[in-house]
Design a protein that fits this description.
Largest sheet: 8 strands, mixed
Distance between the termini: 44 Å
Strand content: 15-25%
CATH topology of the largest domain: TIM Barrel
Structural class: alpha/beta
Number of domains: 2
Shape: elongated
CATH architecture of the largest domain: Alpha-Beta Barrel
Number of helices: 11
Length: 424
């Protein structure tokens, strides 16, 4: 699988990046602002680490996706991937968009019993919660089977386990189509290399046999191509979708009344100049072209697409130190609150809070304060000259960062500020 070019430019000085500028996240009087608030002032007031959320952005992102789905003529459902951001303030914004289960509303994609209970506690009816997990235990099923949620099973063992406890229940099957797409090769959830997710093509007959043995009803086909893929990987997503459709046909031929095909989430967000955003209309048209002939509802489970650009993470530069041939810019945050590069390999854009449009004049490694060598946010990264004591914003911090924060090395997980978008 090919991945987009994501290496930093080496010709210096380089212009400041511009991909991130949008209504809400702007430069005013040479200061970086979010929803009109001076981010450097917020950093000095609250300290680091500090997550600052734009409460208008998640709704904007959901509406952009739903608009494309409507224009494509799809019968669709949108569910939010709860693991990307379980913050109740964010969930309240999404819950207010419309009644879950309707075209304007947003349901929940859960992947653990805890997430199911969290969604219920935050106002989602159980029938609007779709659970898709892996390596599900009997203890998990004690919780899951107590609620009439949608249950997608990703292996023959799971089917057997659920069938023994809830014969006759309606389920979905998560399949592995043998093709995928991701921001990096490691973020593709399906492909030639087997992953732990989904019933593979060669095991579909075994899954069907287990379903029949327990009198289960299969009403959903689910697959997930991968995470963070961008516009130039739409063809790779389509290849996964086309293979999933062949499995859909096998289930239909076996007599199952499939009402929903869940295409997962995985839509990525641009992280550097030169990356190609997903064309939502092209994406929706691709799904419609493959699924419309079957009369099914297409379900979508965006998480990072909804949340990634809805927050920034603020930090202070605490050291600028040359070590050998490398200049390290050290921040007072660590991978315990920002694992995007450490775990996933996502590019990070780091913008000074004062003078954010300064030219990038040198290549640096930006590192955190966790006592591990891998605690870096960017390598060979073009930055302006920054001084100790300056504030910076790490962009695209709204999804899978605060949700995954921990107190490793007993470092704090940080504070949070929520900002409404000013009217007009």
């Amino acid at each position: 699988m090919s991945s987009p070019a994501r290496t930093a430019p080496t010709a210096l000085p380089a212009p400041a990046p511009t991909w991130w500028q949008r209504p809400g996240l702007e430069v005013h009087d040479d200061r970086l602002t979010l929803n009109g608030a001076d981010l450097d002032v917020l950093l000095r007031e609250h300290g680091a680490p500090l997550f600052v959320y734009d409460l208008a952005r998640p709704a904007e992102n959901v509406r952009a996706l739903q608009g494309a789905l409507r224009r494509a003529g799809l019968r669709y459902l949108t569910r939010f991937a709860l693991k990307s951001c379980p913050d109740p303030r964010i969930l309240a914004v999404l819950r207010a968009l419309g009644e879950p289960g309707t075209p304007d509303g947003v349901g929940i994609d859960a992947c653990s019993p805890g997430e199911v209970l969290h969604a219920l506690a935050n106002g989602w009816p159980p029938e609007t919660i779709s659970f898709t997990g892996t390596n599900v235990s009997e203890r998990d099923l004690d919780v899951l089977l107590a609620h009439p949620i949608r249950l997608n099973l990703d292996g023959v063992s799971q089917i057997e386990r659920v069938g023994r406890r809830a014969p006759g229940r309606a389920i979905g099957l998560r399949v592995n189509p043998g093709a995928g797409a991701g921001y990096t090769d490691d973020l593709a959830y399906a492909g030639e290399r087997p992953t732990k997710f989904g019933v593979t093509t060669d095991r579909l007959d075994d899954a069907v046999a287990a379903v029949r043995r327990h009198g289960l009803a299969v009403d959903t086909l689910h697959f997930h191509a991968g995470s963070g893929w961008l516009g130039d990987q739409l063809g790779e997503f389509e290849a996964a979708l086309a293979r999933a459709v062949t499995l859909l046909e096998r289930l239909l031929e076996a007599g199952f009344a499939i009402r929903e095909v869940n295409v997962g989430g995985g839509l990525g967000r641009v992280a550097r100049d030169g990356e190609v955003p997903v064309d939502l209309d092209a994406y929706a048209a691709t799904v419609a072209r493959h699924l419309a002939p079957y009369g099914v509802t297409a379900a979508f489970e965006p998480g990072d697409f909804v949340m990634k650009d809805a927050a920034v993470l603020l930090a202070e530069v605490v050291s600028v130190e040359r070590r050998g041939s490398v200049t390290f810019v050290g921040l007072d945050v660590g991978w315990n609150v920002n694992c995007a590069y450490f775990i996933y390999g996502y590019a990070q854009e780091i913008v000074p809070l004062a003078g954010p449009m300064r030219p990038r004049t040198r290549l640096v490694t930006v590192a955190g304060h966790i006592n591990e060598a891998g605690d870096v946010f960017a390598e060979d990264y073009p930055m302006p000259d920054v001084a100790e004591g300056e504030g910076v914003a790490i962009l695209n911090a709204g999804g899978y960062l605060q949700a995954m924060s921990m107190t490793h090395c007993l470092r704090p997980t940080g504070a949070t500020v929520y900002l409404e978008r000013p009217a007009g």
